[in-house]
Amino acid sequence: MRYQITGKQIDIGEALQTHVKTELGDVFEKYSGRPTDANVIFSKSGSEFNCEAVVHLSTGLTTQAKGHAHEIYAAFDAARDKMDKQLRRYKRRLKDHHKERAEPVELLEAGAYILASNTESEDTEPENVTSMIVAEMETKIPSLSVGEAVMQMELADSPVQVFRNEGHGGINVVYRREDGNIGWIDPRNTG
């Protein structure tokens, strides 16, 4: 597995890098055993250290976790524990996923945009409803089953997952609802 361990305006020593590699290696050996690369970023906000870990699996799925604490090792351990919990929850499905899927998840190229938020009051109606594009980047839309999309959304600790439905090839969305349940949008023409 390839590791990229960096710090945003923080020096990351060899001891911390070794700790990260050892601990992540142990976590993935228990559950999936086939990660391809890990990106761990440390930063500091006030008196707290933050750690964001993103690990890509050979099947195309991604798991992501964040942790924060007053000590840098504790911040990483919090992120690792969250990732461990996510993978433990999906251990059986991850193993089944490896058996069923001979090829990695197919990815479709797409554009992603960040729009400027509307700072006007909700009481006033905007004169111009067009938003200014703040950032433009490329993203990838995976081709998954609905169950795999829900698993990917939870592994990535994301509120929403856009995916191409393997069943019919259409673009679908799963998302976490305010009531804690999962919503699924399937806009295919059923008529």
TrEMBL record:
InterPro entries, sorted: HPF/YfiA_ribosome-assoc, HPF_long/plastid, RHF-like, RHF/RaiA, Ribosom_S30AE_C, Ribosom_S30AE_C_sf
Keyword flag Cytoplasm: yes
UniProt xrefs under Pfam families: Ribosom_S30AE_C (PF16321), Ribosomal_S30AE (PF02482)
Record's subcellular location: Cytoplasm
Molecular function terms from GO: ribosomal small subunit binding
Gene: raiA
Family: Belongs to the HPF/YfiA ribosome-associated protein family. Long HPF subfamily.
Full protein name: Ribosome hibernation promoting factor
Cross-referenced Gene3D superfamilies: Ribosome hibernation promotion factor-like (3.30.160.100), Sigma 54 modulation/S30EA ribosomal protein, C-terminal domain (3.30.505.50)
GO biological process: negative regulation of translational elongation
Keywords for this protein: Cytoplasm, Translation regulation
GO CC, any one term: cytosolic small ribosomal subunit
Boundaries of every Sigma 54 modulation/S30EA ribosomal protein C-terminal domain copy: 131-183
PANTHER family associated with the record: 30S RIBOSOMAL PROTEIN (PTHR33231:SF1)
